[in-house]
Amino acid sequence: MKTKRVLIILAMIVALFIISTQSVIASQTVEAKGTPPGLVKTPGAVATQKAVDKEAGVVGNPHGKHENYKGTITAVDASSITLALKDGTTITIALTAETRIHIPTVKEAAVDGLATGMTAMVQAIRGQDDSLTARKVVLVPGKPTKMHRVGIVTAYAVGSSITILAKDGQLYTYSLTEETKILPIERLDLLIVGARVTIISPRDVSTLNQTANGIVVHPPVVEE
After folding, report:
1. Which burial class, exposed, middle or buried, applies to 141 when counting CB atoms under 10 A from its CB (0-12, 13-18, 19+)?
2. Of the candidates 207, 223, 215, 209, the residue with the CA atom closest to the CA atom of residue 151
3. Which end of the chain is more exposed for a tag (fewer CB within 10 A), N or C?
4. Could you tell me the domains of the chain?
5. Coil, helix or strand at residue 8
6. Distance (Å, rounded) from C-alpha 117 to C-alpha 139?
């Protein structure tokens, strides 16, 4: 009888040991499936970052969604850029030291490479006060075609520049280089103020300065 009682007690001890061991293993398994060591979530850090963003006037994630605007530059300086949009409205966007400027064909572009009349795409982020700050400004290239403009010469400096009064009533000034060709060459002496000419000029998106590749001198009008 005593032997049977001892065996029952031993069996109960073994059973309790097995149950205890399984509980420990299950607990370790749940812990392993949980947050890995070193990656414990810290709600306080998230709240702190949100507070910093709010203080800086940034709504949402500054590296998330951005607002894009495309238009013609009507004003630009070191602190802001203003675009005339397609719908006829204008928008002013702040520029900072972190704003990246991209101009095709220009290796190290800066704000001073932008000018009124250029077309640009601005990627901006909106602040809590509804203001916009530019993350990136990209100059939009135009069609890589040559332009031909006919007009009357109003000013001419040999080897330097030429200004014409075009058919649209506007004055246009072109820089002249050693590569600028006068056509036909036999009319070179006729290239004076008052002459009618056609200016051949390439479109360069990196600058609003226009350079004449060629000047076609028209024959003088013979009055009857």
Report:
1. middle
2. 215
3. C
4. 67-139 (2.40.50.140), 146-217 (2.40.50.320)
5. helix
6. 11
In a 10 Å sphere around its CB, with 0-12 CB exposed, 13-18 middle and 19+ buried, how is residue 126 labelled? middle
53 phi, psi to nearest 5 deg: -60, -40
List the one residue out of 153, 167, 156 whose CA is nearest residue 197.
153
For residues 111 and 41, what is the distance between their CA atoms, to the nearest angstrom?
Answer: 42
**Closest of 194, 182, 188, 193 to residue 221, by C-alpha:** 194
Residue 35 DSSP code: S
In terms of C-beta distances under 8 Å and separation of at least 24 residues, what long-range contacts does 95-99 make, across chains too? 95/133, 95/134, 95/137, 96/133, 96/134, 98/135, 99/133, 99/134, 99/135, 99/136, 99/137
Any residues with CB less than 8 A from the CB of 77 and at least 6 apart, and which? 111
Question: According to DSSP H, which parts of 2-151 are helical?
Answer: 2-33, 43-55
pLDDT in tens, 103-124: 887 888 899 888 888 899 999 9
Going by the DSSP 8-state scheme, the letter that residue 200 receives in this structure is: E
What Å distances lie between residue 73 and 94, 102, 140, 171, 209, CA to CA? 13, 15, 11, 20, 15
| Cα–Cα distance, 90 to 82 (Å, whole number) | 7
**What would the pLDDT profile of 144-200 be if each residue is shown by its tens digit?**
556 789 999 999 999 999 999 998 898 999 999 999 999 999 999 999 999 999 999
